[in-house]
């Protein structure tokens, strides 16, 4: 039988995937990476708040060891009180940094946001019976979390968020949301002051 009876179809060479298929896969990959990245970022944010809460609680507990029987917290300034706390090993070990020589008595503490943390004596009726902890450059979301978490434990007699005072030391999420300022890009703009008496 002649080959002309059965016409043969010419086969086209396989040219692989087209640009549309590659583009769809690339887009899908980017979306998955973004979702995973957002999830990791949210976990990291929760971790940073947890570290900040723990560190603030640690320095409050350790600062109580600085109280002298007669004179209370007998320090001339926040610089000397903070430096002495660091000198005696009372600074947190995780998440914060110490600048300067710890043994000098003049080193400084910095939180995980890059803001300075200062402890200072607080005078009541002429005696330094309390102290304050000031932490700076706190992002808005963390500002709300820190204020509400630390404001619900009863450890502080007063909390100040930027210029707003909560003299009973209790801050609701709604109140914190109104008092905590928005960030400037990736930098937090909030200063929180926690006051402890006793």
From TrEMBL:
Pfam families reported for this sequence: PilS (PF08805)
Which coarse location class describes where this protein primarily resides? membrane
Q: Does the keyword Transferase apply?
A: no
Residue ranges annotated for the Type 4 secretion system PilS N-terminal domain, each copy included:
50-197
SUPFAM superfamilies referenced in this protein's UniProt entry, alphabetically? Pili subunits
Cite the InterPro entries for this sequence: Pilin-like, PilS_N
Q: Which residues form a coiled coil?
A: none
Q: Does the keyword Transmembrane helix apply?
A: yes
Where are its TM segments located?
20-44
Protein location: Membrane
This protein's UniProt keywords: Membrane, Transmembrane, Transmembrane helix
Quote the protein name from its UniProt record.
Pilus assembly protein PilX
User: What taxonomic lineage is listed for the species of origin?
Assistant: Bacteria, Pseudomonadati, Pseudomonadota, Gammaproteobacteria, Enterobacterales
